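Subject: for your reference before the review

Hello V.,

The reviewers asked for a structural picture of the protein, and I figured it would be easier to keep everything in one thread rather than splitting it across files. Below is the amino acid sequence we used in the manuscript, unchanged from the supplementary table.
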Amino acid sequence: MRIALFWMVCASAIVISGGVTARPNVVVVLTDDQNGTGSINHMPKVQSLLAEQGVTFTNSFVNQSLCAPSRASFLTGQATHNHRIMDNERAWHKFKSLEGNTLPVWLQAAGYRTAFLGKYINRYGEIDPPKPSWIQALAQRFGWSFASDVVPRVEVDPRTWVPQGWDLWFAFAERNPYYGFTINENGKLAKAGDVYSTDVLRDRAVGFIREQSQTTAPLFMLIAPKAAHKPWTPARKYEHAFADIKLPMSPAFNEQDVSQKSQIISELPPLDKMKIEELQNGYRQMLQTLLSVDDLVEAVVDALQSTGKLNDTIIIYTSDNGFSFGDHRMFGKGMPYDASIKVPLVMRGPGIPKNETRSQLVNNLDVVATIEQLASVTPGITPDGRSLSPLFKNPVVPWRSAILVETFHHKLAAVRTATRKYVKYKEFEELYDLSIDPYELQNKAKAAEYATDLTSLRALLDRLRGCSGSSCWAP
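And here is what came back from the structure prediction:
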């Protein structure tokens, strides 16, 4: 009996960087629409408290560059083609059936105290109208109205829904603005006054940490602010920040010749002076919203320090997807180009080296697998990612050769390697040699000298776009 107990204790420990530690606390800050092409460099507290104290992953990507699918991936550890939340339309209503088998449920069952703060899956808290009959659809098409078209009254307010797995549920209960929002705290609604949403999340996060100060149970907290999603509204104290900031203009900005790109891009008009000014203002305001997230990170680190939990806590900073400010004429996300799929990823904590970078190809599915491994939990779903722990100890450990990118609302899939990106649309292909064309300007899909690359990448994409678990790994 004593021998069995000994091995149970050993199994609950984690070995990283050659040392052994008990199950750590885990705090995740998941921003919204923050690209990984430089915005984090304007967050001095994230830099000093996280990047300088941990590892920055310089090639971190998401499986799909869209809010709901990416958030569903974070909660399940699955690629979009497996969890099937393919776009934002009715996303939460589709996701509800999956809520009983997600990361917080597994962590809570393993003894973690769990907390969610901020933005959940898109459409959370909204009434799901019934699908119209063919007669109603025809009537709507011609502008007719019937009493039966009225959405039926529901007995339960969907804004008060609390998903399984969370000890603290502190979520935006509607399409969440920066000011004037409603919070669902464990099933009870409260309308916020003239307060800034990121500051409210900051204070509640600090409160949760302090509430756990006397418990030995590890904590898991997912903080998901609205920043840096448009329409950008900074806190009033930051309205004049970055007055002299310039919009980054890489060689991909306002790409002049888009004739070799898909119809989605080739039909976009060149950015005119007015649109560029809009981008400039939007970029400045986006950075302003992130200054409040910077304050949130500082407050969380301070609270962990004051309660004696910091040295036992893994802190992860990342985003659900990227965002393009004019690259390839785009103002938004959802495409397979790096501005859309690249996100910041910084991790600090026990066993993680300080002030180092890693350049291997990693994605959001790996982040989930890392949490599962470090927390010693058994997921109820086979993870499609792989723990990043080997990269903490060895910066040159053999790693994957490619990642899968999916975008179902544009009906495309892609694979990205360290030196190539191949994109397959329904009837169109793109191939970029990133070693000489990192800004994805020259489509080589029809170039004879890239025929061998094209053939191998087609085969790789065909394999990965239906993968599950270990088959999603490209050695």
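For the response letter, the relevant points are probably these. The chain has one domain: 21-128+155-391. The CA atoms of residues 326 and 371 lie 34 Å apart.

Happy to draft the paragraph if you're swamped.

O.
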